[in-house]
UniProtKB/TrEMBL annotation:
S1 motif domain residues: 147-208
Gene3D superfamilies: Nucleic acid-binding proteins (2.40.50.140), Winged helix-like DNA-binding domain superfamily/Winged helix DNA-binding domain (1.10.10.10)
Family recorded in the similarity comment: Belongs to the CvfB family.
Species the sequence originates in: Candidatus Eisenbergiella merdipullorum
Entry-linked PROSITE patterns: S1
UniProt xrefs under SMART domains: S1
Protein name in the entry: RNA-binding protein
Entries under InterPro entries matching the protein: CvfB_fam (IPR014464), CvfB_S1_3rd (IPR048587), CvfB_S1_st (IPR039566), CvfB_WH (IPR040764), NA-bd_OB-fold (IPR012340), S1_domain (IPR003029), WH-like_DNA-bd_sf (IPR036388)
SUPFAM superfamilies documented for this protein: Nucleic acid-binding proteins
GO MF entries: nucleic acid binding
Length: 278
């Protein structure tokens, strides 16, 4: 076994010096790491075991701390940008040395004060870094089931697959293209409904309620659109699905249900290719 960077681990005190103590794994005293004096618990003696987090200091030396950082390697959590620089951003995460977020690991521009989920990884040179590309780090053991309401962070949008969401900032979820309504963009905090739980544990979401709950809202939206267009929409429920989605942010079926609801209530009429308010 070896001392692992980016993880909390129990190490044994093998030597005391003026500037701290040296720690090592049981049975491997040759590989050791310093715990600075200000981190050493009062009365600590050789032979004691301490739980520490191991990382690299500003001079790229292996060092340990008894502080609790926000993340360990492979974990996802919400961090805040402390500052930005020429090579990337630096995130506050509970240690004296801020966590580096390289430009290549950013999915969108960030600025000081921004907060968002990131994952912690070890780069090729053995340094700890953050990434906004969190898809492969998200968990698939959420407690949610179909029709549950959830909150999450929308971290990426794909024209092919849909909008990727970190539910509770840690569970893997997707809003399929057919369920993408309104203006959705990376960085949004959203509320959604679980429409499916796949065998692998990943969630499908929708930002809309079930059809029977949405009819009234959709009908009101159609009515407002008619009024905004001067009393008549220049298309009806037989229009192309793409046109309806673009103009109304609804599927064709949802639009037809809403128009049918308004027809039944006598609030509109269909004349030619138009829907007019009565």
């Amino acid at each position: 076994m070896r001392i692992e960077v980016g993880k909390r681990q129990e190490l044994k005190v093998i030597k005391k010096v003026d500037f701290g103590v040296y720690l090592a794994l049981e049975g491997n005293p040759e590989e050791r790491v310093l715990l600075p004096a200000k981190q050493v618990p009062a009365g600590c003696q050789v032979g004691e075991r301490l739980e520490v987090f191991v990382y690299r200091d500003s001079k790229d030396r292996l060092i340990s701390t008894t502080a609790q950082p926000a993340l360990c390697v492979g974990e996802v959590g919400v961090l805040t940008v402390a500052q930005t620089g020429k090579v990337g951003a630096f995130l506050s995460w509970g240690l004296e040395k801020d966590l580096f977020l390289p430009f290549r690991e950013q999915t969108r521009p960030v600025k000081a004060g921004d907060s968002f989920p990131v994952a912690l990884y070890v780069d090729k040179s053995g340094r700890l870094c953050a990434t906004m590309k969190i898809y492969h780090y998200l968990r698939t053991d959420s407690p949610y089931k179909k029709d549950d309401r959830v909150h999450g962070y929308l971290y990426e949008i794909s024209r092919q697959f849909g909008a990727f969401v970190a539910v509770d900032d840690k569970y893997s979820a997707l809003i399929p293209p057919r369920e993408m309504y309104g203006t959705l963009k990376a960085g949004d905090r959203i509320e959604a409904r679980v429409t499916a739980v796949h065998e692998d544990g990943k969630l499908d979401l929708s930002v809309r309620d079930k059809a029977y709950l949405m009819i009234g809202k959709d009908a009101q939206k159609v009515l407002e659109a008619i009024e905004g267009a001067g009393g008549a929409l220049p298309f009806n429920d037989k229009a192309a699905p793409e046109l309806i989605r673009e103009k109304m942010q609804m599927s064709k079926n949802e639009f037809k249900r809403a128009v049918g609801h308004l027809l039944k209530e006598g609030k509109v009429e269909i004349t030619g290719n138009e829907i007019q308010k009565k």
